[in-house]
Design goal:
This protein is an all-alpha fold and 279 residues long. Helix content is 64%, strand content 2%. The protein has a two-stranded antiparallel ribbon with strand order 1-2.
């Protein structure tokens, strides 16, 4: 197989169309689709090729792949604005959905972590309905994980949707968590005298999205509780930028990503939350 892929790489202008056709052959082996779609995207970065990859990732048997790479590749596509909810649902249904990060002290990525990496990297307009569909399916094995991720979406639509969820159908712990979320969510209180300006945050966020994390990390170091400044100086029109940053950060797929995601969720909820959303 390696020789076949080497041939395709060497003669991509001739063979790319053949590879694409092979990916869509209904009789193709699912691992061949998975492996071939990775090759396809390495040669062609079009939306069409990336959608082919996403579908192939949803078909492959997860015990045959490196789960970390599988999650990472999909999360990156989620950040690009593509809908990865089909393979994300497969992850939630996989009994052995976990892996370890040696460089983070052997941190175990759980099924819930992986769900956050996948759905959190997506645009909320795509992720929220996919999560709600899972939550409302009484036979889905990961309803409560979907609920946890849905509670972090921090959009008016997700808050309204959660209002209609019957807490009696949930475990005692998740039912209590949902009730607390709908009655008294944890919000950041704006600092009276902010230590960081709006322009500093906007510049740091824009540079982070452009691949330069330095200014953002400098702000985190200088003002560890900078969330209080963010909610004090940013305006509602800045929220799309904050959401993009949150998606990029969670696609990193590590425990630091998760902690930052929680902070950004609190920031967003501090802007989004209104009692009338749940009354």
């Amino acid at each position: 197989m390696d020789r076949v892929w080497d041939t395709v790489r060497a003669r991509s202008s001739e063979l790319l169309a053949c590879l694409r056709a092979a990916m869509t052959d209904p009789n193709a082996d699912n691992f061949f689709r998975f492996d071939g779609s990775n090759l396809l995207v390495s040669l062609d970065q079009s939306r069409e090729s990336k959608l082919t990859l996403i579908h192939s990732y949803a078909l492959v048997d997860l015990k045959e792949v490196n789960l970390r790479d599988w999650i990472t590749n999909l999360s990156r596509l989620g950040v690009e604005g593509l809908d990865v909810s089909e393979p994300a649902d497969k992850w939630l249904r996989y009994p052995k959905a976990s892996y370890y990060l040696p460089e983070h002290g052997g941190y175990k990525v759980t099924k819930g972590d992986g769900a956050l990496f996948l759905y959190g990297s997506m645009d909320e307009a795509q992720a929220t309905p996919a999560l709600l569909k899972i939550l409302l399916d009484p036979n889905h094995p990961a309803r409560e994980i979907a609920l946890q991720v849905l509670m972090s979406q921090a959009t008016p639509e997700s808050v309204r949707a959660l209002k209609s969820v019957d807490g009696a159908e949930l475990s005692r712990e998740m039912g209590s968590g949902l009730k607390a979320f709908l009655t008294k969510p944890q919000l950041f209180k704006p600092r009276v005298r902010p230590k960081t300006s709006r322009q500093q945050f906007v510049t740091a966020f824009e540079k982070l999205l452009a691949g330069d994390s330095g200014p953002f990390l400098d702000l985190v170091t200088e003002v560890p509780d900078g969330e209080k400044d963010v909610v004090a100086v940013l305006a509602p029109e800045d929220l799309p930028l904050v959401r993009k940053v949150r998606r990029l950060i969670i696609s990193g797929g590590n425990p630091h990503s998760t902690e930052y995601y929680k902070s950004f969720t609190g920031i967003l909820m501090s802007f989004v939350w209104k009692p009338e959303l749940v009354n």
